[in-house]
């Protein structure tokens, strides 16, 4: 590894995500050669510089771990929770196998489905950054039956309180009694509760939301609460989707 920014170095070392590293640096917990770096970070050379977090030396991992979890309903997407709620790391159990993995992006407690956990901070950063436009596919159960004009609005972008969404891929998979409908939505952004807010903006409240794919990864037959380590080909495809060859 050549000289790199401190936040990227911390992310590649599996300490936290790149955004989390920025917060860690600003908190004063990080030292470079015994000195507190500036809040906006510094360039480091792994062959020359010693980086510590709370006194513990950190180095980039030689091997990373990538785990796909089918997140169950009610589980929170954090490493731990002060209220004692079940987190994805509780569900993962020994799936980390000695690695300090963290969730890539978020799934709300009332959402289910594919969640990637890894200690590869660079991949995590790129997968969640809107610049790289990585697909995230969801299947939502909504009240009512969206019309053609509703679907057209989602495909072109809808106005939310934080701006207009980027065009999405949207299809009605089936219409059910109630009335209700199962809707497939593919987005390339990561706003707070975005899919729920998009569907509510066209008049259809989401009753259940399941993420079925993330980039080249598909949930497949993985059951809720189960996890598996990604295969080598899946990791390669994931890195390509993140723009890393």
The number of distinct structural domains comes to: 3
Report the count of strand segments: 16
- Portion of residues in beta strands equals 25-35%
Could you give the distance between the termini?
15 Å
**What would the CATH topology of the largest domain be?**
Alpha-Beta Plaits
Question: Which outline best applies?
Answer: elongated
Uncertain segments are none
- Name the helicity range: 10-25%
State the helix count: 7
Corresponding CATH superfamily of the largest domain? Pseudouridine synthase I, catalytic domain, N-terminal subdomain
CATH top level of the largest domain?
Alpha Beta
- Calculate the mean pLDDT score and round it: 90
What is the H/E string? Answer: EHHEEEEEHEEHEHEEEEHEEEH
Structural class: alpha+beta
Biggest β-sheet description: 9 strands, mixed
């Amino acid at each position: 590894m050549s000289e790199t920014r401190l936040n990227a170095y911390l992310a590649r070392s599996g300490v936290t995500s790149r955004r989390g590293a920025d917060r860690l640096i600003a908190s004063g917990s990080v030292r470079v050669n015994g000195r507190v770096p500036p809040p906006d970070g510094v360039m480091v050379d792994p062959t020359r510089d010693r980086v510590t977090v709370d006194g513990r030396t950190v180095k980039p991992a030689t091997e990373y771990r990538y785990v796909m979890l089918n997140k169950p309903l009610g589980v929170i997407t954090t490493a731990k929770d002060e209220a004692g709620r079940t987190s994805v790391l509780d569900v993962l159990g020994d799936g980390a196998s000695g690695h300090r993995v963290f969730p890539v992006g978020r799934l709300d407690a009332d959402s289910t489905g594919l969640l990637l956990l890894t200690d590869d901070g660079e991949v995590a950063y790129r997968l969640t950054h809107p610049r790289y436009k990585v697909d995230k596919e969801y299947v939502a159960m909504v009240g009512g039956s969206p019309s053609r004009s509703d679907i057209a609005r989602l495909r072109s972008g809808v106005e939310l309180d934080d701006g207009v969404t980027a065009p999405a891929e949207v299809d009605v998979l089936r219409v059910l009694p109630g009335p209700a409908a199962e809707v497939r939505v593919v987005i390339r952004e990561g706003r707070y509760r975005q899919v729920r807010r998009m569907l509510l903006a066209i008049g259809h409240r989401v009753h259940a939301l399941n993420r079925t794919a993330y980039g080249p990864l598909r949930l497949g037959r993985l059951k809720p609460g189960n996890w598996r380590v990604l295969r080598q080909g899946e990791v390669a495809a994931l890195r390509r989707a993140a723009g890393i060859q």
